[in-house]
Automatic annotation (TrEMBL):
UniProt xrefs under SUPFAM superfamilies: DNase I-like (SSF56219)
GO molecular function: phosphatidylinositol-4,5-bisphosphate 5-phosphatase activity
Native source organism of the sequence: Ascodesmis nigricans
Superkingdom, natural source: Eukaryota
Domain annotation Inositol polyphosphate-related phosphatase: ranges: 53-509
Classification via InterPro entries: Endo/exonu/phosph_ase_sf, Ig-like_fold, IP5, IPPc, OCRL-1_2_ASH
Protein name: DNase I-like protein
Residue spans of biased composition, Basic and acidic residues class: 296-316
PANTHER family reported in the protein's UniProt record: INOSITOL 5-PHOSPHATASE, TYPE II INOSITOL 1,4,5-TRISPHOSPHATE 5-PHOSPHATASE
Upper lineage: Eukaryota, Fungi, Dikarya, Ascomycota, Pezizomycotina
Gene Ontology biological process terms in this record: phosphatidylinositol dephosphorylation
Region (Disordered): 277-325, 429-467
Biased segments, Acidic residues type: 429-440
Amino acid sequence: MVSMPSMPSIPTMPGSWDLSPSPYTTPALEAPNTHTYVTTQLLSRRREFLSPKTVTVQVSTWNIGSFESAHDLPEWLPKVSKSPEQVDIYALALQEVVDVTNTQNFLRYIDPKIALSWKAHAQNALPAGYECVASTQLIGMLLMVFVSPRIADSTTNVSVSNVGTGLMGYVGNKGGVGVRIVLGDTLRLVFVNCHLAAFTNATDRRNWDAAEISRRLVFDPVTKETVGLNESTALPKYEQEGLDKSDIVFWTGDLNYRIELDNADVRSLLKPWMPKDLPPTHADISTPPSPIVGRNESKEKEKDEKDGKNGKEEPHLPPTPSEMHPAAAMTLEGTIDSLMRHDQLLKVRREGNPAWNDFKEGKVTFLPTYKYDQGTVGVFDSSEKARVPAWCDRILWRLRAPLPVADGAGTSKPQVPDKNAEMLFEAVDSEEEDEEEDDLIVTRGDTPSPVRTSLDTQRPYDDPVSSYTTPFGPITVSQLSYVSHQHITTSDHKPVSSLFSLTFPASVPAQRTTIHAEIVREADKMENEHRPVITVLIDSPTNEISSSENHALDFGNIAALRIYELTLTVANTGTSIAHTSFVDPPKKEYLTIEPLPAKALQPGETASASIRLHVNTPELARKFNSGEEKLDDVVVLHTKDGKDTFLPLTATWQPTTFGTPISELLHVPESSGGYRAWAAQSEDQKQGNARYSSPRELYRLTEHIIGVLPSCTAQGHPNPFARSQQLATVEQSNDVLATWEALDTDTPFPAETTAEAAITVLEQWFRALPDALVDWDTVPAAAKKKGSAVLESLDKEAVNIVVYMTAVW
């Protein structure tokens, strides 16, 4: 890991770069936090894969006034740059794509075909290969962002947001739309298209609109792949973001700020420079004749003719520096500078209005963009209203702001307008404006806010180059051009475009992939080292201790009625805490798996559990004898954040006469090794075996009982049958189990086998038979009173057993 240089201690303010030391300077990995480790390490090594990258961005805005203007896009949109195909991003902001003076348009559904049509026209106007990554519309405002193939793969995290600030502060006839993209895994770039309140005297309302847009624009969280340009290596909070999280904001649209001068003065100053075709570009150009013949000029012309001037009008010159506009020079540039000093936007920025904190605008060198007679190159509004010419259409930019906008504007926590704020909405009807543009004007009560402006009071524009230093290199915005398209005549506004060059630290994909792979390998290694490790020991029925890696949970040979138990011991042999448990253990009626203790095992600690097996019913015994049931399963021991241990669970069944039908026992020959050996034979081997009159097991048990009865009397136990009842009510004694083993294998009974044990086995043998010897429910009532009649109702095998038992006892 590359160590990070120490950074100076700088107070952190909302929206600023966090230069505090990283809490991950000494990384430590816990098993559950592998993702955290990989993310923080990748962030801490950003200097290894970030490199300066430069992209070209063109921002264009046009209020089309709901006129049919789409066919004009090829005439100006791709012609700002000498090499249109070298522009990486085109951001096109349109206003009034529908008639916003028609209230039906902002109260009803907007047809998406409008945006799709503009998108198609813009796509056709641009060089081939550009992709529209975002398009968002709010009634009349439409913002589209196109990227070139060169940066398409590195353009991610596209998100859009809309804010209405019109009627009652919410309706979308006024407001703004925004698009956020991330370039090169680092740069959060936002484009804002706005249409602010109209009227010359609505400056406060425009400021409020802009502040609300800044405050309420909220974008989706960025993805985890975005590394950003913040020094902190803490795991990012993936939450919604406001403008305060953006590295660069381009703000454009119809801002509607006006010139606070008399209409006649403005027109008088601009008159010498109004073009017939294109605006003059040289300061020494001779004064062109004005194409405008207004009402006042007509009167002057008539007066001149009466005075004998033969209709020859003397050139109209702008005021001299000694007159009412002392900054006006005898050039177009000087005239524009003189008028811009009375521009409302420049004024509110110079005053440090918080709505425009830290925004910059390049030098305006073009004629006012509003308002022209439609279809003319340079004829200002000649209608009865005769609007004052103004630069309504603007393009500004802002690098990440060190302070938040007042009233919570631009913060990442979305807010709603404060209902308690002192606001006054007034309906305005100005004689200088159309009734169709009636709007709501808002004035706010005095609110203390930081006053901050970078605008030079001696000049009405900012430097074309802005730079901000991040911990990984500077972000630089260079304005290459700022022009209007005077020759476009299909709207009463002129389009405005600005070309920018952005330089910023961006991720180099190949280097990032290599470093990410290194971190993942390191994380895997550390994860394995910190992963809980357990060792499982098994205490088998033969008291042999074995490791789970070499031995299964094998009960070995199992027989009916006998209880088998394995002890499983789990030892934490690693360096981390271990949480272990059985996962979905096998569910069998003859199997009991004791759960492990719920507590976590510290390194070096152990925990034990037992697994108990007991086949104690004749039904189970018959299933094991037939092969219908067998024990061949797996016990899964899960270790949280560690490896699961899979323990095969097996046992080998030993066939038994317990529960075996008499019809089957009659075929077991003498000297065959008993039922167990005979059951293991194939069906072919079993063919031809003689059929006996009674099971050999019955003979052996009765002979043994008769043989040991005298000893019972000598020992003072004259009634072993009564004592056998006691044995049958408790867990199987060793004598009883040994007797069953000898019976199943046709081996001699142990010498210590007592009459009580043999009687107990005999009783269990009879009880385990699938069918009763005598089914009293089927014996006629009359026959029950006569023994011979009972025998006549029984099967031959049952008759032989009953006769034999009667004779013996």
